[in-house]
Amino acid sequence: MSTRQFGQPIKRNEDPRLLTGRALFTDDVQLAGMLHVAFLRSDLAHARIRSIDVDGARQSPGVAAVYTADDLGDYWQPGPLLVPPLPVEQIEFYQRTQVPLAKEKVCHAGEAVAMVVAESRYLAEDALDGIFVDYEPLDAVVDLGSALAEDAPLVHDDLGHNINARVTQAKGNWVQAEADADLIIRRRFSYDRGTAAAMENRGIVANWEEKSQHLTIWDTTQAPIAIRNGLAAMLGLSEHQVRVIAPFIGGGFGPKIMMFYPEEVLLAWATMQLGRPLKWIEDREENFYATTQERGQVHDARIALKEDGTVLGVKDVFLHDAGAYAPYGLTVPVSSQCTLLGPYVVPNYHSEFTSVFTNKPIVTPYRGAGRQHGVFVMERLLDIAAKELAIDPIEIRRKNYIQPEQFPYANDIVFQDFTQLIYDSGNYEPALDRALDLVGYEAFVREEQPKRRAAGERVGIGVVSYVEGTGIGPYEGARVTVESSGKISVATGIGTQGQGHYTSFAQVIADQIGVKVSDIHIVTGDTDLFYWGAGTFASRGAVVAGNAMHAAASKVREKILKVAGEKLEAAEEDLELIEGRVQVKGVPQTSISLGQLAVGANPMRGGVKPGTEPGLEATEYFGPERGATASGVHAVILRVDPDTFNLEIEKYVVVHDCGKVINPLILDGQIQGGVAQGIGNAFYEQLHFDENGALLNASLMDYLLPTALDVPNIVSDHVVTPSPLNPLGVKGAGEAGAIPVGALFAQAIDSAFGDIGLEVREIPLSPNRLFELVTEASAREMV
Amino acid sequence: MEQTISVSVNGRPYERSVEPRLLLSDFLRHDIGLSGTHVGCEHGVCGACTVLVDSAAVRSCLMFAVQANGREVTTVEGLDGGQEDLHPIQHGFWEKHGLQCGFCTPGILMTLVPFLEENPDPSEAEIREILSGNICRCTGYQKIVEAVQLSAILLQEKPG
Which ranges in chain B belong to alpha helices (H)? Predict the structure, then answer.
C-alpha cells in the first residue's frame, strides 16, 4: 500500500449507520410475538422476606407469567465467581455472589424480587403493583468503617462477618524503611462511589426457537462469548445452540462486563419456559441500582522519605466496599493496590486491604477499575511530603521516577491478571516536561498565580503522573477473509461500545492486505461468527484483539502472495499489494485483483493439491505474556468561583504514552472522554446513600453528569514508547483519561487555597463540600 | 380507551390507535419502527430522545403520542437522503469524530437542526450552551463542539 493506514486520523467506518439512526442497538430488536419484562425491586436495602403474594399480578391484564425465586426450582443458583482470588500467600476470601431473584432476604436496594412478563412493558409495570412483599426490615450495613464492628448487622448471615476478602502484598521491608526515614507522612484518604451511567441502559432480548432448538440473545454485554458459554451450561444446552449478539452498545465503561446479571439468567430461562421472545430494557432508575457501581474505598496510608525527597517506602491499609455481593473477585482492590506504586521507585511497600460486604449495589470495575484510588493516595502523599520538605511538587516526582534504563521494571507484587507486576516500558520525564511546557507551569507559578492571588483570585495548578496496566491477557482472536468481491470481512469475539474498533482494526489490516479501510467490514461480538475470546475490558481491545488482527492479516497476506505468485508467474518478493490488487512491483499491467484470487482460491470443480486450504482466510490468536504499561501526565489550571465554589477549568493538558498510535482521532476521543468522566468523578458525581442504604439521588436530575459547560477543551500530546510485548507496539488507552483526575483536582485546589493550608483528602468533591473544607481550613488557620 | 391519532413523521402520514399514556418516544420507536430515536433517561434530562415537532426540538420521552396528533414530527431518520447523502450536520460529526458509541447522537443532531437554522454562525460558548441540554458520556464534548463548528460551515456552503 502506498500510504500507511496505521497511525492516520481516519474517520470511522461505523459512523454513517450511527448518524442516520440505522445502527442496531439491543432495544431496536423487534420480534413477532415478543413479550416484555419488568422487575419488582426491593425498596429496602436489607430486609427479610416473610412472604410474596403475586396473585394480583397474575390476574393483571396482559400478563403471561410472574416468577419469584421459588418458581425457578433448581435453576435458582448464586452466580459464578468471575475472577478467582489472587494467587498470593496472604489471602482470605469468602465468596458470595448475586442470585437471580432474592429468596429469603434482600441485600441491597433495587435487588430484584419478582419478574413479570406481559404483552407490553406498560402492562408489565402495571402488574408490579399487584405484587405484595411482606418484609421484615433489618439494620443495614452502609458505612465502610462500621461494617467490621462486632455488633454490625450481617449482609450474609451464614458468614458470621462482613469480610469478603483480606489480602496483603509486600515488597522490600517497610519496617526498615520507616526506621531509616527522615520524614513519615500519615493520612487517611477516602474515595466515594459513583456510577458509570452509560447513556444506553442495559437490555436483553432472548428468543428460544422450539423447532430449531436454538436460543438467540441480544445483550448489552462487553463479553458475549462468556455469556454464551455460561448460559449454555446453566440451561443444559450445547454452546452451538446458543448465539449471543452484542450489537451496537451505547457505552460500556466496565459495568456491562459484569456477569451474570440476574436479568441475563432470567430472560434466557423464561423464553424457554414460555416459547416466546422476551425483551427487558433497563430504565434509568433501575440502572442506578441494578447495574454495578464502583469507587468506595478508605485508605490509611503512610509514606517514608529521606530529607531530599527520595521515597523509601509506602504502607497502605485500606477498606474496599464490595457491595452486597462480590462476583468480580478482587479485580478492583488489587488494581488499587498495584497502581498506587505509579511511575515511582518505591523500594519498600506494604499494602493490605479488606474488602467488605455492605447493603449497597454490587461493585465491579468501572473505567479505571480501582486505579484512581491508588493514584490518588500516592499523588497526595507526594504532594503533602513535598510541602513538608519544602521541595517543589514537580521535583519530588521527577526525583523518584523510574528511569528509562530500568525497564522492564519489576515491582515484585501480583497484578489483577495474576502475572507479576512488571512494567514493560516507559519514559516518564519527557511526558512531564512536555506537560509543564504545555500548561505553562513556570510562568504560572512564578508570575501569574502570585499576581492573581494578590488580586483576590483563587487560582491553582496541578500536575500529576500515573501508570496504567493495560492490554492484559489472556487472549483474543480474529478471522480475516478476502471475499469474492475483493472486499475483506473480519470477525472477532470482543464486543464494541464506541471505541471505533470497526475502523482501528481495519487500519491494522489495511496495511497488510493493501485495501482501503472502508473496504474492510468488521463484525464484533457475535458468537456465531467468532467462537473464542474473553471480552472488552482493561483497555485491552486495541492491544490484544488488534494484534490478533495483525497476525491474521499477515497470514492472509502470505496466502495472497503465494497464489498470486503462481498466477502471475512471479517471485513473491517481487509482488506488492496495492489498492485491492496484487501486482508485480512497478508493473501495474501485470496484476490480479484480490477478488479474482479469492474466487480462484475456492475452486468449485477439479482437484487440488493435498493439504490445500480453501479461500484466502486466516484465523489467528494473540495473547501477551503480560499487560503493557501505559503512562501519562495530566496538568490543570483552575479557578474557584469565590461565591459558588464551582470550578472553572482554564487549561487542561494531557500528555500520554500508549505506545504506537493506531488512529490519533480515536485516541484523542478516548482521552477526552476519559477526562470528562474523571471530572465528573472528581467534582460532580457522587451516589448518596442514607443510613438505611437507600440511594437518595437515583436520577440524572440529581446525579450530576458533566455537560458541555463543565468539560473544557483538552490540549493533548503524546510520547511514544512502544510496548515490546506485542508486534504492533501498542498499549491500551481507554481508561487513562479518567484515572488521575481526582488526584489532579486535589492538588490544584490545594494550590488555590495554599494560604489557608487546605489539604484535600477525599474525592468526589462538590461546590458544597469544597465550601465546607475551605471553611474548616480557614477556621483552623485562624486559631 | 385508545385514541386514534394522525401524525406526519418524516413527511409520511401515520394513523394509529394508541393508549393516551403511550409516550411519543415509544410510539416512534416501537409502534412505527423508527428506532433511531434513543431513550436514555425517560425523564427529560439526557436529551437522547430529542425529535422535532413542528420544527421545534422537543424531548419525545416527555410527550405523549396523543399530543402529537395532527403535528409534524421529524426524527433522525428524516435527516438524510440515504447513507451516501448525509445531512451537513451528519457530515460535520463524521469528519470531526463527534460521536463514539453514537447512542446520544441522534438527539444531539435533532437539537442542532433548529439551533443552526437560527444561529448560522454560533460562537463556541453558544454551541456549548445549546449542547448542555444533551448528555454525552463518551466524547467529553470537545469533538462535538468541533463537529458543530464544521457543520455550521457546511450548512452555509450547501447549495440552495
Answer: 24-26, 88-95, 105-118, 124-131, 142-157
pLDDT of residue B159: 62
Is A556 domain-assigned?
A: yes
Residue type, A309: G
CA atoms of A50 and B37, how far apart (whole Å): 43
Where chain A has pLDDT below 70, the residues are 1-2
User: Is domain B88-157 annotated with CATH 3.40.50.620?
Assistant: no
Chain-chain contact of A19 with B109 (C-beta, under 8 angstroms): yes
Asked if A38 has any chain B CB less than 8 Å from its own CB, the reply is no
Q: Is residue A761 assigned to a domain?
A: yes
Domain check: are A478 and A463 in the same one? Answer: no
User: Which domain CATH number covers A712?
Assistant: 3.30.365.10
Pair A282, A302 in one domain: no
| Residue B83 banded pLDDT, cuts 50, 70, 90 | low
Hey, where are the domains in chain B?
3-77, 88-157
Q: Is B65 on the interface with A (CB under 8 A)?
A: no
Q: Which domain holds residue A188?
A: 154-192+293-400
Judge if A370 and A299 occupy the same domain.
yes
Does position B104 have pLDDT exceeding 60, yes or no?
A: yes
Q: State whether A458 and A478 are in the same domain.
A: no
How many structural domains is chain A composed of? 4
Q: Is the full-model pTM beyond 0.95?
A: yes
Q: Quick one: A495 and A449 in the same domain?
A: no
Q: What is the ipTM of this complex?
A: 0.98
Are residues A184 and A249 both part of a single domain?
A: no
Q: How far is CA A249 from CA A492, A587, A681, in A?
A: 16, 46, 22
Residue among B26, B37, B97 with most chain A CBs within 10 A, to mutate: B97
Same domain membership, residue A783 and residue A656: yes
Residue burial B1-14, b: 16+ Cβ < 10 Å; e: rest: eeeebebebbeeeb
A713 touches chain B (CB under 8 A): yes
Which amino acid makes up residue A688?
Answer: H
Q: Which amino acid is at A241?
A: Q
Instruction: Report the pLDDT value the prediction gives residue A394, as an integer from 0 to 100.
Output: 97
C-alpha cell at A655: 500528555
In whole angstroms, what is the distance from residue B98 CA to residue B24 CA? 27
CB atoms within 10 A of CB A264: 26
Q: Which of B41, B94, B145 has its CB closest to that of A708?
A: B145
Q: pLDDT at position A1, please?
A: 41
Task: Give which of A562, A555, A563, A561 is closest to A578, Cα–Cα.
Answer: A561
CB contacts under 8 A, A 99-158 vs B, are 122
pLDDT confidence band for B81 (50 / 70 / 90): confident
CATH code, B3-77: 3.10.20.30
Contacts of B127 in chain A (CB under 8 A): 708
C-alpha A540, offset from chain centre: 10
Which B residues 78-137 touch A at CB under 8 Å? 79-80, 83, 86, 90, 93-95, 97, 99-106, 109, 127-129, 131-137
Contact assignment for B100 to A665 by CB distance below 8 Å:
no
The verdict on residue A122 lying in a domain is no
Q: Measure the CA–CA gap between A606 and A596, rounded to whole angstroms.
A: 17
Chain A to chain B, count of Cβ pairs less than 8 Å apart?
179
Per the CB < 8 Å rule, is B104 touching A705?
A: no
Residues A279 and A317 in one domain: no
Does A675 sit within 8 Å of B140, measured CB to CB? yes
Q: What is the pLDDT of residue A538?
A: 79
Contacts A674 to B, Cβ<8 Å: 140
CA dihedral B43, B48, B54, B55 (to 10 degrees): 140
- When the pLDDT of each residue in chain B is averaged and rounded to a whole number, the result is 96
Helix then strand then coil, % of chain B, to nearest 5: 40, 15, 45
Q: Is residue A779 part of a domain?
A: yes
CB contact under 8 A, B138 and A251: yes
